[in-house]
Amino acid sequence: MMTDLLDPPASLPPVQDAPAPSAARPPINRRLPAHPVVAIVGATGAVGIELIESLTARDFPVARLKLLASARSAGLRLPFRGREIVVEELTEDSFEGVDVAFFSAGATISRRFVPLAVKAGAVVVDNSSAFRMDPGVPLIVPEVNAPAMAAHEGIIANPNCVAAILTVALAPLAQAARIRRLNVATYQAASGAGAAAMEELRAATGAYLDGQPFTPKVLPHPYAFNFFSHNADVDPDTGYNGEEDKVVAETRRIMGRPDLPVGITCIRVPVLRAHGMAVNVEFDRPISLEEARQLIGVAPGLRLVDDRVGNHFPMPVEATGQEAVLVGRLREDLGDPSGRSLALFIVGDQLLKGAALNAVQIAETLLPR
Amino acid sequence: MMTDLLDPPASLPPVQDAPAPSAARPPINRRLPAHPVVAIVGATGAVGIELIESLTARDFPVARLKLLASARSAGLRLPFRGREIVVEELTEDSFEGVDVAFFSAGATISRRFVPLAVKAGAVVVDNSSAFRMDPGVPLIVPEVNAPAMAAHEGIIANPNCVAAILTVALAPLAQAARIRRLNVATYQAASGAGAAAMEELRAATGAYLDGQPFTPKVLPHPYAFNFFSHNADVDPDTGYNGEEDKVVAETRRIMGRPDLPVGITCIRVPVLRAHGMAVNVEFDRPISLEEARQLIGVAPGLRLVDDRVGNHFPMPVEATGQEAVLVGRLREDLGDPSGRSLALFIVGDQLLKGAALNAVQIAETLLPR
After folding, report:
1. pLDDT over threshold 80, residue A7
2. What values do phi and psi take at B170, rounded to 5?
3. A230 lies in the same domain as A125
4. What are the phi and psi torsion angles at A249 (to 5°)?
5. Measured between beta carbons, which residues in chain A are less than 8 angstroms from residue B266?
6. What per-residue confidence (pLDDT) applies to B264?
7. Predicted-assembly ipTM surpassing the 0.90 threshold
8. CA quadruple B22, B158, B186, B286: dihedral sign
9. Largest CA distance in chain B
10. Where does NADP(+) bind (chains A, B) (predicted)?
11. Chain B within 8 Å of A241 (Cβ-Cβ)?
12. Does residue B288 share a domain with residue B154?
């Protein structure tokens, strides 16, 4: 599955915001050696752990793996391919000799250390939101817009988890017909708020079942058998929260549709690590269910789970740990009398396609053929 | 709060399907005595227990309470106003002397026993789906369409839980502007599938946390930290499940809008007894957020929970046990470029406004003034 996605298939959407390479800049290592030295920043976090797993699962040709984290986590040992690797403290000198660095330690760390990594010669795949809307930094879901990577200048941004899962699921439909309008209601897992939030969900639920009090520390609301509007700050003027703003902006950018109308409501539900979304898509022409099923059935990165008789559709217990994003509940959207809209339900592993897997797939496209 | 809603306020939607009283039929007791004899069929179920609670909470003037259930539950004792009432087996003779009977034992029981109760002189408030689409049976949410009750012939249907919570929340907006289109994604609790499903959610979650296997018996899919498409059977032709079909048909009927386009996706999430819904509403004119807030803020049965700065919006932990349906996350719907759509998030107690409370409110409107 290590496809070279830099060759744009004719059907991919046009690249709209990758800048022309600047002749005045120093040369950048735009591709990786056959066996790159790999660094993971934030190696002990929920996504960091999955990055190590994904490198193994996908047989990424790692020459050497460097695990970086805060001073607090330095000295921990994490398993990789049968050996243990000692976590080192992230410093300004951490990136010497590194070919590719995966950053997953939040936007503040990325803003400070990503430029140092690039200066040291590494290509950075950044999982934070720091550079996602920077016009000089491609924002990539390989199955959707790999051609936009061609002009990278050392940094490639990995999208918000909802945007990644949503756009990979919509890609085959968007190639068949132009999307006019999108509406999304999410069912988001604890993992999007990190390993501590996953542990808080377990602990809060255990306390509830034992009849014990529990005070949330990571998330702003009780999580046991409860759901709540996403914990990102809410814009007091628009009423949309930061998560929703990210999903809208990044979905538009990945799909090359800067003006696409997107309605969205982001809700955290008490599940551990798979995000769901109920989606309505209006196209510029009617797409039959048969056509939609065929498109989704053969699209890379997707699995059609759409058994009406067995009432078997995408759900977290089956998406967790899976590279494929599950797509199902394909129906005509009865809320649109024009007959040009479909409804579907999507579930993907937030830590895999929503984060670590997509980042490793980005790096794969930079390996020699 | 025992308002007499039979007097139609001028702003309520037109009654479209209540038939004219038939002069040929025998007279029906259309109203209740000041102190009615009350029966509850299905008294030991999740809704039955809440019916007893709601009669107490709302000071319903019960002369005598008769609790009816299957032979299996007969002999159990349930508390009511400081005394214990022995549950009796439901038989064909159970309704002698009963003024009002609440049915909550499923459509099969209702189809068989409701006609017997009416024949015995009782007014029936039926919580099952058996008669909801019968043109001779009003389907009532008192805050929305109480005038449609006037022509009842002994049976009044209590709506599906989602339809009740959704329509009471939309009522003030629908009175201010005509709704053109509706889209709903639900976050539904275990209680909709009964007390056994609530217990299964607790047990499955406890087993998961203990690392023990668990085989679901009540619901078709694992429920611990999982969500799944609603368990009602799916129409193999349309892809919509029975719950979605009910919500669409009943919402249209309650709102007096038989052709309203309604898009819907019903999902069960791991919460115990409050249903959520992310809703998009397109109106025939733009409604400002200020206007929407004012309308919802003064509407009967609703509580506006819309604190953007505190990131505090409707959620199950605050809706559970509450009569009011919580409405918040009011925003312009950015998925509709016309600017005529609002987005909102609604959470209501499935067992209260979604079932028992609404049934008791229906009976209240039949009491003498």
Report:
1. no
2. -85, -20
3. no
4. -65, -40
5. none
6. 98
7. yes
8. positive
9. 66
10. 44-47, 72-73, 191-192, 213, 350
11. yes
12. no
